[in-house]
Amino acid sequence: SPDMPAMSSFGPEQDSGAEDGLALRIGTRMGEFEVTQRIGEGGFSIVYLAWDHSLERSVALKEYMPSALATRLGSTQVQARSQRHRDTFDAGLKSFINEAKLLALFDHPSLVKVYRFWEANGTAYMVMPFYEGQTLKDTLRARREPVDETWLLTLLAPLTEALKVIHAEQCFHRAIATDNVMLLAGSGLPLLLDFGAARRVIGDMTQALTVILKPGYAPVEQYAEVPGMKQGPWTDVYALAAVVYWAV
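Above: the chain's sequence. Below: its structure in token form.
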């Protein structure tokens, strides 16, 4: 995005230019983490560059802060703007917590790591590595020559392995798209982003799932228009195939 640096550990959320009053102030301490810069803002969260004083390294600190639903009281406290926003605020917070817990389950170079997670100040936070890179969408738009089979296979191999890891835990990403894959600076390794729509199905894999989709990349079962059509690993496989189709 031209609105923020080509670096992320949090997904394709772009800086929306929202009021700085909603963001944590530079220098704010959250335990051993000190906020040093705001690097991205989406509809439901703000991401900061932070310094880990304990391990002496830069990290990405992601705070649940839905700008349309919440306001900040004092320097750190977050609350819903009004009672009518409370249910939606709580549902978003639950999804944010779900994302952190899912990512903490996995260990694969193409999946975002979560170092720390905690709830405080009426909201929640997760700390992740500070990744630098560019989305697949932006990378391909900048290319002058078409992609070839060899390049696509170097992309597909780690992504399919990453999907195998999450599917083994009965977890479906459900939002794979060209702007949800980052190519890391230096290595070019693909990183699967944005687990905000991911869900882990416990027990019965046929249980109903909320309709969350990426138009153009979502298979028919995500539109929930045909009774009895279930989401599963095949849902992510379709979306990944759509990514390759777009790349070609």
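The two ends are 22 Å apart (CA to CA).
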